[in-house]
Amino acid sequence: MTISKPIQMPTANGSATRVVAFVSLVALLAGTLSVGVSAQRQTATPKARLSEEQRILHVLNRLGFGARPGDVERVRAMGLESYINQQLSPEKITDATSEAKVKNLEVLNMTTAELYEKYPQPGQLLRQLERRGELPAGLAREDRVRPAAPSPAKDAAEEMKAGAENQGTAVMDQPGAGNPASEGNPRQNAEYRQALRQYYEQNGLQLPQRMTAQLQASRILRAVYSERQLQEVMVDFWTNHFNVFAGKGADRWLLISYDRDTIRPNAMGKFSELLSATAQSPAMLFYLDNFQSVSPDAQAGQRMQRGQGRRALQQTGMPQLPANPQGRRRGINENYARELMELHTLGVDGGYTQKDVQEVARCFTGWTILAPRGGAAVAQAARNGARAERLRENAGKFFFNPRVHDDGEKIVLGQKIPAGGGFKDGLMVLDILARHPATAKFVATKLGRYFVSDEPPSALVNRVAAAFTRSNGDIRETLRAIFTSPEFNSPEAYRAKVKRPFELAISALRTLGAETNGGPQLHQWIARMGEPLYGFQTPNGYSDTAESWVNTGGLLERLNFGLSLASNRIPGTRVDLKRFVDTNGARPFDDAQITERFLNLIVAGEISPKTKATLLKQISEKTTLVVPALPANARASDGMQEEMAMAGEPPVRQRQRRQQVARADANITDPLTKIVGLILGSPEFQRQ
User: 630, 627, 625: which is closest to 670 by C-alpha?
Assistant: First the structure.
């Protein structure tokens, strides 16, 4: 087989990227992964039962992110059932290595209020400094706004407000800086950007992008190194099920608590507790706009509500808030109510009506966030004393405001919510939904799709739903019903799921025993393959079926990732391939022997004759494989701009990082690298 000319693939920003074009291999990938996506068998003659090693590999791939060198032997020694039981009780598993890897990610241990202060939004910070008359040299209005003929520039404060609050992006990090056509835009003013950056450095502040980068790094590091593999898999599952987009306004700050305080503690507990935690999560309240939802009939002057609001605030030690904490009149917002039923519990066919959506939305009025963007609280604290200080300390926390709650009677799914319930209205709704038979079936279906096959058998779904109902939504018992089912342990389920990009990247690192810091370049590769972490904009989250991931562009990027990893082209991530072929002074292995060794390591030697023939032909031909480099200003496809994660580092280190990323496309001739990279890109490794 020969290498064709590089294909020009359009990227998200419209430019062209050179990609590796292995015509036969890509055709093999596309054909193998797209035909019969749920039931495609990796071997020509399926066995009646899985062997012991296949069962172990199956469990390591589904209950975790793949086997590390030595894991199969370790599980065999302790017994597969013991391993499964151990994973179902993650709190009993020592996880020192994983915790050591993330201990230096400071944002993981910071409150939301601390994040608002240490990682302020540049536009918001600028407005606060301007109001206080504390703008340093270079940040004054005349330095920020440079009109471009023929029309004057927009007002800087208004433009930055739009960028900060509506888009959630840092003003200094927009593309196109230095473009003469955009000199009237303060966000494109290089001198202004530099001045603001210096202010951050001099005052010990950091750009908000670093929060997202550290959160992504923590997800990667824990998935790679944690002994609590099932815990990390369930964090991945529930984070996607209860999706929140990091690019929406304040959610960049609120997602740290969402991962730490909402998803992780409840990932293996009761579904009802997880559901309640997400409903009260500031990240979810902001993402689906419920923090703005108020009863149109709420009267700030009503004596009873005013008294309730005062007492509620006094209990938290917080200062009195206006009836509408956002400062302008709004009505009921139905976004959260709709997604709560459609995506979080009942499912689109769960039997609810538009009237139910309206009634549920009424129940959740007043479920809001104290100082949702943080900056206003910080500004008040600077001049208003102890009461404002308490507000500053509690910025970004969940808060029920009874003064804007619809306290009338509601009917949800045929059940009465009595008038006067206040905060309990929402809790009653969550209880109704958590116990509903449609929720049991919906959750069972999603778990069956995630752990067994793209189209889980109805018999499996019914048994899992019954276990969910019988255990009152106990997630561990629901999972146990899946893992002990004949469908999960069948040959048809073995390697039947196509890995999503995050799963592929983590499994590749674990398989090769790689060392990684979970840094931005790895984030970018996962994004290039189509799954930027916290980067899915709509509430339904990433798809878990093969058809969403099997396309030519995505498969080419998967091949490129495998070769980049094998050739140590991902800064911050390193593999030592030579340790797997060390002969201790004996005659070196030839290419065929090396291929067999890595086929055994990476896919347990299970490879179709067609794939093996294609690989051997590609390896035997002394061709050069071209791995495209990430551009110098590489950004995740969701626009979160991971390149700026380096901001705040010394200029020399910043230049070194950019040079690492921007160096020329790699020409790979080393047989060892080619062998490993191509096996990582094979159809067999794409499946789990």
Answer: 625
529 and 671 together in one domain: yes
* Same domain, yes or no: 544 and 633: yes
Choose one of 205, 223, 249: the last residue of a domain.
Answer: 205
Burial degree of 371 (CB within 10 A; 0-12, 13-18, 19+)? buried
In the numeric block, the tokens 């911050």 are attached to: 572
Q: Are residues 20 and 138 in the same domain?
A: no
Please give the pLDDT value at position 358. Answer: 98
Please answer whether residues 219 and 533 qualify as being in contact, where contact means their C-beta atoms are separated by less than 8 angstroms.
yes
Half-sphere exposure of 67 (CA within 13 A, CB side): 23
Residue 591 shares a structural domain with residue 661: yes
Angle at 181 (CA atoms; ends 177, 185), nearest 5 degrees: 60
Shared-domain flag, residues 62 and 135? no
Q: Tens digits of per-residue pLDDT, 133-189? A: 777 777 766 555 544 443 333 332 332 233 333 333 332 333 333 333 334 455 556
Question: Which one, of 586, 575, 541, lies nearest residue 339 by Cα?
Answer: 541
Give a yes or no: residue 345 inside a domain. no
Cα separation of 43 and 37, whole Å? Answer: 15
Compute, in degrees rounded to 10, the torsion defined by CA atoms 536, 289, 520, 663.
70
Got the DSSP string for 100-148?
Answer: HHHTT-GGGG--HHHHHHHS--HHHHHHHHHHHT-PPTT-SHHHH---B
CA-derived radius of gyration, the chain: 27
- Are 138 and 189 contacting, i.e. CB atoms less than 8 angstroms apart? no
3-state secondary structure of 642: helix
Going from the C-alpha of 613 to that of each of 34, 317, 607, 683, the distances in angstroms are 20, 71, 10, 13
Residue 645 predicted with pLDDT over 50: no
501-511 and 520-528 helices, crossing angle to 10°: 130
477 is written with which tokens? 């018992």
**Is residue 391 situated within a structural domain?**
no
Residues in a beta bridge with 367 = 400
As given in the structure block, the two tokens for residue 277 are 């935690």
Q: pLDDT digits over 76-132, tens only?
A: 999 999 999 999 999 999 999 999 999 999 999 999 999 999 999 888 788 777 777
The residues pairing with 625 across neighbouring beta strands, listed in sequence order, are 668
Question: What per-residue confidence (pLDDT) applies to 219?
Answer: 98
What's the structural domain count of the chain? Answer: 2
Neighbours of 659 (CB within 10 A): 11
Residue 145 zone, left/alpha/beta (φ > 0; ψ -120 to 50; rest): beta
Rounded-to-integer distance, Cα 239 and Cα 176, Å: 33
* pTM score: 0.83
- Indicate if 664 and 544 belong to the same structural domain: yes
Same domain, 531 and 620: yes
Q: What are phi and psi of 687, to 5 degrees?
A: -105, 155
Domain boundary among 147, 181, 205: 205
For residues 148 and 79, state if they share a domain.
Answer: no
CA distance 367 to 291: 6
Query: In whole angstroms, how far apart are CA 378 and each of 91, 326, 393?
Result: 37, 16, 9
The DSSP annotation for 407-465 comes to: -S-EEETTEEE-TT-TTHHHHHHHHHHHH-HHHHHHHHHHHHHHHT-SS--HHHHHHHH
Structural domain contains residue 141: yes
**Is 340 within the bounds of a domain?**
no
Q: In which domain, by residue range, is 647 found?
A: 7-87+496-686
CA quadruple 160, 164, 167, 169: dihedral sign? positive
